[in-house]
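call fold(seq) -> tokens
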Amino acid sequence: MRSKFFVVLLTILAVGILIVLSYRENGIKTYPSYKTSSMRGFHLTHKDGNKIKWELISENATFPEGNREVILKDLTMKIHEYKIALTGGSGTYNIQDKNLIINRPIKIDIDGNKLTTDSLMWNGDKELISTKDAIKFEGKNFIIEGIGLIAKTENQQIKILENVKGIFYR
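ret:
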């Protein structure tokens, strides 16, 4: 009877040791979230004196520790002086350089005309919009397509860089 008890006890002990030795956490590490801050309803206004030059609005904003960047989702940018409204799926705003990189989908409304592309960069100091991706610019009387764009908001000039195709209506 004693030998049966020891056999059962040793079997249970062996199975327990095998379970403990074979258990892994699959290499998943969790990091505390106190190093990152986030907020809903982000709103940034850039002024020149008392005049609002542009606004940046986002549904969700994340502020990683140590970075001078804000990671944005569902963003809208309004350039008041030139009546430009820009929307994007996600983006990153560099606080120090005042540069905004926006990712798809991007739609820009310029006085009722629509420009669409997949990525875009806004340089706040130079007031310059640029992309290397394909663009489509549609208005009431035209459709222009091409690859790459540089737009200077100050003098309202848009330059499409490559493979420009246009259709104009009467």
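Confidence is low (pLDDT under 50) at residues 25-31.
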